Amino acid sequence: MYQYTDFDQQFVRLRADQFRDQLQRWQTGKLSEDDFRPLRLQNGWYVQRYAPMLRVAVPYGEIASRQLRVLATIAREYDEPEAEVFKTAMEGQGKLGTTFLPKNCAHFTTRTNVQFNWIPLSKSADVMDLLASVDMHGIQTSGNCIRNTTTDALAGVAIDEVVDPRPYAEIIRQWTTLHPEFAFLPRKFKIAITGATEDRAASAWHDVGLKLLKNAAGEVGFQVSVGGGMGRTPVISTVIREFLPWNQIMNYIEAIVRVYNEHGRRDNKYKARIKILVKAEGQGYFDAVEEEFRQIVEVDGGPHTIPQAELDRVAACFVPPVLADLPDVEPARLEAQLEALGTERPEFARWLARNVHAHQNPQLRAVTLSFKRVGQSPGDASADQLDALAALVDKYSAGEARVTHDQNVLLPWVHGSQLFALWQEAKALGLASANVQLLTDMIACPGGDFCALANARSLPLAEAITQRYQDLDELDDLGEIDLHISGCINSCGHHHSGHIGILGVDKDGKEWYQITLGGSDGSKLSGAPGAGKVIGPSFSAAEVPDVIEAVLTTYRDQRQPFEPLIDTVRRVGLEPFKQAANAVRTPAPVPAAA
Ligand code: HEM
Ligand code: SF4
To answer: Per its record, what are the GO molecular function terms (predicted)?
Structure first.
């Protein structure tokens, strides 16, 4: 995996020192609240419903065991609210009818970062020092700048890969980091890049989506799309260039962002994302980008053209690790061995089929550890789990893991002969649920339990649905289903792209939930990307698990053999689902006779 250079390391350490100084000046009254706010935000420190929230950048999701250990220390020693804060929070939760508020844990996010929900600001500088000690930070995890570029968790190991996207993601990271021209864009800006035939990065839902491909002559280039996003106006991005030579990508992104920076709306934050500009201007925007690109290349001399030597230098940082001392097993023999083990232990066979992915090296596999289980929020890892995870990553995956878009963790370098041992250890840690891509492998935002912007809570719904669907046979029978939950229209839980989407809405100060069906992130199973459609007026929290069950029962009744939910919804339309869901609705009380 990519190793930071001395320059990067010094840069991150100096940033931590600078933050300590800013914090101290705020604590001693030399910086006002208003002056300190942008400084903390620029380092990933938000203030949420009850306490501060820290977002730590994990560039393109790659994370090392030594970094996981530091996250474990932070979770154990710092993700602990002050007593008064926790008391107030619990009282607040009590009013909402729950006392569930996980602490001492890290949270894996859909944009493959890590968040903490409880660290007191007074300890924030110590946390930044700890992070800097393993090359981590919160730069560009907040604010109207270019955020962490995401990619495919299987990058570099996927069997359907055309080109490894990680060197490009790293070059984009270096180029965007503190880019002076793009530090104050009209709104946040997100780039996703994929290099495989299957889009596992939801690229169409991003401000810029990049797909690496090869043309007929075998040359590498990008299909460039622009203007995707969720929020209150869900939009799928539009292809602006079918094939851009790879070495022009920085010049071209510069043109895209520059035109957006100049013309994007700043008068209304809901209309400030690039998707609104692209929708409003259409071809006019595309022409302006092409003209800007021409200027950058022809007048300015293409200052960001990537030299082959630079690509080679960065790509060399992503060479596969040497897995010493492991047997050289013939692939067919390995398959036979795994099959035999699976026959003895059907539970293992199920895990192999669900959580283990083919690898470019036939001796190896990529393994998803599931962070979706009863009693913990989707994507949450306790301090002990993080330490144990780090040990697994060292023992079985050459010290490297990936945070996935689905809020799990992937081990990309597991030798086939070690799968059984890994499964046993992961199982003991509660990380081996064979539920990857099934209903309970859901995405959920923190919602009203933590987030100050929420209309409703997401986590109790995630828990209620997880509890109801614990039978793996039933889950397998239901097949691959993307369930996505957001606590408000900001769409952090990607509800628009869920086959089933749940959105928290506020009516008369109470929590309600709108259900959508048929959304897609653009992956192979989900098909063409698009937003789900609402199936009727919103439901109460108590009704939602029954509504989900009604939807799933309808699917079972309507499906053709081997047809996944998303295809049944597309084939039969919303009507049968609407009827079943609305039958669940608790009838309004009959008014008393006069
Ligand atoms: C609790 C703290 C959080 C706050 C205050 C917050 C706030 C927001 C806001 C205001 C937006 C909309 C921005 C816009 O459209 O211009 C947004 C978008 C987004 N957030 Fe969060 N968020 C939080 C946590 C998370 C988490 C935990 C995740 C991942 C699980 C996440 C993932 C996203 C994503 C993917 C989007 C982009 C949706 C789109 O394409 O428009 N956020 N967030
Ligand atoms: S979707 Fe809304 S409730 Fe959920 S984290 Fe984002 S802003 Fe908060």
So the answer is: 4 iron, 4 sulfur cluster binding; heme binding; metal ion binding; oxidoreductase activity
User: Which of 479, 500, 481 lies closest to 560, judged by CA?
Assistant: 479
Q: Which residues of 63-89 are buried (b: 16+ CB within 10 A; e: fewer)?
A: bbbebbbbbbebbbebbbbeeeebeeb
Give the separation between CA 564 and CA 556, rounded to whole angstroms: 10
Task: Determine the Cα–Cα distance for residues 296 and 310; give it in Å rounded to an integer.
Answer: 20
Give me the residues paired with residue 335 across strands. none
Task: Split the chain (594 residues) into runs of 10 and give each run's mean pLDDT.
Answer: 90 97 98 96 93 96 98 97 89 80 94 96 97 96 94 98 98 93 94 98 98 97 98 97 98 98 93 96 97 98 97 93 82 94 97 97 96 95 97 97 98 96 97 98 96 95 96 97 98 98 92 97 97 96 96 98 97 98 79 59
Of 524, 514, 584, whose CA–CA distance to 554 is shortest? Answer: 584
pLDDT at 260: 97
Whole-number pLDDT of residue 591 = 64
Between CA 173 and CA 108 the distance in angstroms is 20
**Ligand 1: centre distance to CA 51 (Å):** 17
> For residue 208, what are the β-bridge partners?
191, 226
Element (H, E) at 52: strand 52-56
- Could you give the domains of the chain? 6-132 (3.90.480), 150-317 (3.30.413.10), 331-428 (3.90.480.20), 444-582 (3.30.413.10)
Give the DSSP per-residue string, 547-584: HHHHHHHHHHHHPPTT--HHHHHHHH-SHHHHHHHHHH
Query: Is 53 a pocket residue for ligand 1 (Cβ < 6 Å)?
Result: yes
Q: Distance from the CA of 176 to the center of ligand 1, in angstroms?
A: 20
Ligand 2 neighbourhood includes 445 CB (under 6 angstroms): yes
Rounded Cα–Cα distance for residues 350 and 289 (Å) = 49
Is this prediction's pTM over 0.85?
A: yes
Phi, psi (5° rounding) for residue 472? Answer: -65, -30
501 close to ligand 2 (CB < 6 Angstrom): no
Cα–Cα dist 132/44, whole Å: 13
Confidence (pLDDT) at 1: 85
DSSP category for residue 305: P
Asked if residues 476 and 556 have their Cβ atoms less than 8 Å apart, the reply is no
Cα first-last separation, the chain: 74
- Mutation probe of ligand 1 site: the residue of 142, 404, 492 with most atoms within 8 A of C-beta: 492
pLDDT of 592 reads 64
Give the model's pLDDT for residue 324.
72
Structure confidence at residue 329 (pLDDT): 87
Question: Using a 6 Å cutoff on CB, does residue 453 contact ligand 2?
Answer: yes
Give me 199's structure tokens: 């889009």
What does the DSSP assignment read for 165-207? -HHHHHHHHHHHTT-GGGSS-SS-B-EEEE-BSS--S-GGGSS
